[in-house]
Amino acid sequence: MESPDHQRSMTSQLDDIRTAIDEIDEEIVALIWRRERLVRLAGPLKDNDAEVKAPGRVEEVLEHVRATAEAQDGDPTVVEATYRAMIDAFMDYELKVRHEAETQAKLDAFSRS
Q1: Whole-angstrom Cα distance, residue 48 to residue 99?
Q2: Do 78 and 86 form a contact (C-beta atoms < 8 A)?
Q3: Three-class SS string for 32-97?
Q4: HSE on the CB side for 17, CA within 13 Å?
Q5: What is the pLDDT of residues 76-91, one digit of tens each?
């Protein structure tokens, strides 16, 4: 049976780990926000939905992040799964931004006619 001091020590360590994870999450959210701003700029520059979906580019990104994870002794499977989810979310967002820009352009053209 573990002593109460040992249990408190483990709880303290877990609290410290959770605090560190929270700090990392805040950094990740800031980076995601930076990526979102760039996606918002890129969306209207693409001519069609196929350019947004760009499966070749998706594979390039996944290969790059897997290699980066491996170089840092990280788990490339976890990194790839995380990036797949992120890419899917950003792709949906970019399609939305592109469609909104197209709609606005049509409204602007209509109001000028």
Answers
A1: 9
A2: no
A3: HHHHHHHHHHHHHHCCCHHHHHCHHHHHHHHHHHHHHHHHCCCCHHHHHHHHHHHHHHHHHHHHHH
A4: 6
A5: 999 999 999 999 999 9
pLDDT tens profile 34-72: 999 998 888 888 889 999 999 999 999 999 999 999 999
- In angstroms, the CA 56 to CA 53 distance is 9
Q: Are 83 and 62 in contact (CB under 8 A)?
A: yes
Give which of 85, 39, 79 is closest to 63, Cα–Cα.
79
Residue pair 89/52 in contact (Cβ under 8 Å)? The answer is no
What is the number of residues in the chain?
113
Residue 108 tokens read as 């602007």
* C-alpha torsion 57→62→68→71, nearest 10: -130
Average pLDDT, the chain: 92
